[in-house]
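Lecture 7 notes: from sequence to structure.
We start with the chain below.
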Amino acid sequence: MLRNRVLPLALLLPLAGVVATTTACPDGGEGEGEGEGEGEGEGEGEGEDPCTTLGEVASDRVLSPDECDVYLPPADVNVLGGATLRLSPGTEIRFADGRALRVRDGALSSLGSPDDQVILRSVDDNAGPGSWIGVIATGESTETSLTQTTVRDAGADAGGGGGCITIEDGANDVSIVDSDIFNCDLAGVRSDVPFTLMTGTAISDTTVGLAVRADVVGSLGEGVNSPFTFNNVVRNEITDAIVSQTASWPDHGLPWHVDADLRIEGADSPVLTLREGVDLRFTPDRTFHVGANGDGGLIVLGNETNPVRLSAIDQDAGAGEWVGLVFGSGTLSGSSLSGLLIEAGGADNGGGEGCLTVQDTGPDHVSLSGVVLDGCAQAGLSITDADAQLAGFADVSISNSTTGLALDANVVGSIAEAVTTTNVTNHRITAATVFESATWATQTLPWIVEANLEVAGEAGSPATLTMTGGEFRFNDSRGLRVGFSSQPAGLIATGTVFGSTDVASTAGGDWVGIVFLSGTVTSSLTGVTVKQAGQENLGSEAAITLFETGGAVTITNPVFANNDRGDIFVDCDSQPTITGAGGATILNEPNCGP
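Predicted structure tokens for the same chain:
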């Protein structure tokens, strides 16, 4: 039960620098005298009033309402030298402006009760946030335990304070249980170390509830229910943002602001699990890295109704406000994203090339299910390495982004189904060699092919690319080549459209076309459309060129439009099967002999 005591004038005078009082002492007598009440760390001498001289605690000491109705320390209270300061139920300490309770190389045990909390507050009944510094557990403290304790009016930006309660790096055995923290400046609780126990605590009337290192968040409680109650609090903050130990972050009911690159990596191969409802918001140009400079993994466990959310602090920001989520070479196998929403990412910084970027992770390390990518610069999903095939891909949506997918050609086959798109213009193929057999799912948007698309296997292990439907638009001087002599490969395309990025062109020769070479294995083009091709490059002679392919190629019911130099060229060492190509311009190499 919170108490709001009004102090008699006699108890307030010492805080103005004079200890000349007539004060009710524990033994019922009266004592008079003068002395200076200023000076940090002032201890108590014989005959001094314990209610107004609390300062250095160099040996074990117990404070209680039986000794003093209210303690009024004239300076900082410092717990020193292995001493323990114990606060009994009902103890109240009021601090002057700029003062603090510092647990140095000692211990603090504040043990209130539900009906009689310990109270640590400002001497001013009308104090605003930051009137005094607060409780500070330094790096040498042995224990800081607050149970059924009220800490209020603190958080002054002075003397190392970072909120009503500040836990410095190196502090030991910190617990906050069933306590009330309110009317704070800077933060309710700021901590650089994990908590031994943190539960049942209310943080109120402060802009920032918790300001903690990333490695601390996992110590704040497990499961669906948060160990906190937040009232009139805007956000929590993550300060030093490296997750070096395996942890699980539940939803604590407030967004987390992240003002540094958040990294999951370390010698212990940490895995971070984000549970449903977790909301991380990043400052501009910041990145969420997984496995960038060491091994690390990420598991996201959101759902459609309560997703995990990664976005910008500015909720009205446009595309590219922050970098996005980036998986690097140290990404652990088994990383998975389910029920994830990423917004406003794609800033060209920190290795990011879209809201979600997969770099050189190796094959089958990352899977996606129920992922929404919205308002992305560069691309929604970018996979930049030829060996970074996804382990799973289902129910992915991309919206309000110019490019949906930006992929190395060798990983397109791991996109197992069509992406749902809204207000997206195209997909892009960046690096463009297919080394392994793959089937490309039909996408509703066209692919922009930015490099020569090559299908090239290995001796004894041909690579066959299978396409069903879809549209591929090639940049100037680009084309599709199949089957170098030492790299056997095949192409099976049904109902696919091949054309130029200049969709309105009628001149022809805007891109190279399709070239089959001597390493071609069984290939077929059925009902395909080839248009605007025939540019003289890559050895092409027409929109479709066959060199030394033997009888490996079958062309059925093709459609040609606006091609330069002819539709099909066949050399002397190719015997394709061509049907339903009436009206096509077919060129045969002359002088082939009998």
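Points to note: Residues 241-431 form one domain. The chain has a mean pLDDT of 91.
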